[in-house]
Specification:
homotrimer; mainly alpha; 0% strand; binds glutathione
């Protein structure tokens, strides 16, 4: 494994870290704006939606990163990066949609959930092919994987 | 590091991703069944137990994955996979036990906590042996590690 | 990539796992002390501060580990380890400061946030240099990276 076979996965992960930091800052501003001092997590609906939007994105962030790397290392860096960027874009829309209204979170949620499932599916394909090759000596996808 | 030295760790991670997705879907169904619309996170105890069961599993999921990989890469892939699968099984029981009653979460919690500690202990052993070997030139466990 | 190029990152990660386990035990003790049985997450302010301190540290733990490894693999293991240990120390102070008073969380929070930003900055530098070298053949920092 050479570093340049994963450096684009690292770049997308970094983008995700910055996005999470941005969501956190938004919660901190919302705590000030709506006067919701820690440890409180309830307040006006506007605050609660921003709070939950960040909490929800944080909850799924490790899941996203793990699937990004599994898909990228075991299947294809290029495809993982492609769907990974779309996922992060979907989460950006989710955060702002949710901040505006509960309804507003739904469309971007469906979109980012789809991207998440694609990453999981690519991980599955890659892992199954690697196991088949390592333990049965069978190259299922020939040189198709590791594009 | 060859891919087949970690592909079973990847498979267990993938299993964990699917388990987390399953828990999330359960929360979404519970939100519908008990009419708890986001951003609310309180409602009937039945809902709150399912909500907290998923939240608790999500909180520990990165901790689990990190210890799985440390144990598998620095100590033994086979042992990490073995205890990793038991951990995920324990979390499955935890989720359903908690969904039924607060009491019902305890026994599977103790079980999965034990599996988690084993993974942390294996990580510790592997890391200490690798440091000793790399920095002191001492092979503590001879070829015992990296089984 | 040899194991000894990352074993110190593994050691800091392990330290973080132990710290998170310690925070969790503190919440379990606080649940007993203040009689806050799951699934409840509200109670006396003393309980809520401990609960939120652990929740907040858990939320950022994956972000910390990802940035630790990106910084350590793509930039410098030694620097990542240095700032990583400071981050974990800051989180220890954060937890205990928050447990005592909401105000008490602020100073250590600013400190650990700074360490977190340093890790993200090192990751960014390392990733950009690796991309430049891999795709443009340009060695920006010469042998400065991978110290
Ligand atoms: N923790 C989530 C788990 C399930 C989930 O991701 N739900 C989606 C669709 S209902 C969501 O947008 N939840 C809003 C939220 O977490 O505040 C929840 O409480 O709902
Ligand atoms: N976030 C957890 C941290 C400690 C923990 O894991 N507690 C166990 C044993 S009391 C649990 O099952 N907690 C239930 C929950 O998180 O809802 C909590 O609030 O309790
Ligand atoms: N989940 C966090 C996101 C932002 C954050 O990290 N806030 C800092 C500064 S206000 C904090 O210490 N929050 C306390 C807490 O999470 O309980 C929150 O609700 O505040």
């Amino acid at each position: 494994m050479m570093l340049d076979q994963v450096v684009l996965l690292a770049a997308v992960t970094l983008l995700g870290l910055l996005e999470q930091a941005y969501f956190s800052l938004k919660v901190i501003y919302a705590r000030r704006k709506y006067s919701v001092s820690p440890p409180a997590i309830t307040g006006p609906p506007e605050f609660e939606r921003i709070f939950r939007a960040q909490a929800n994105c944080s909850e799924y962030f490790p899941i996203f990163v793990f699937s990004l790397w599994l898909a990228g290392v075991f299947f294809s860096q290029a495809l993982a990066v492609f769907f990974g960027i779309l996922y992060l874009y979907g989460r950006y829309l989710y955060f702002h949609g949710y901040a505006e209204s509960s309804q507003g979170r739904l469309e971007p949620l469906y979109f980012s959930a789809k991207m998440q499932w694609v990453l999981i599916a690519l991980s599955g394909l890659g892992v199954i092919c690697t196991i088949t090759q390592a333990y049965l000596g069978l190259d299922l996808l020939l040189s198709f994987t590791h594009v």
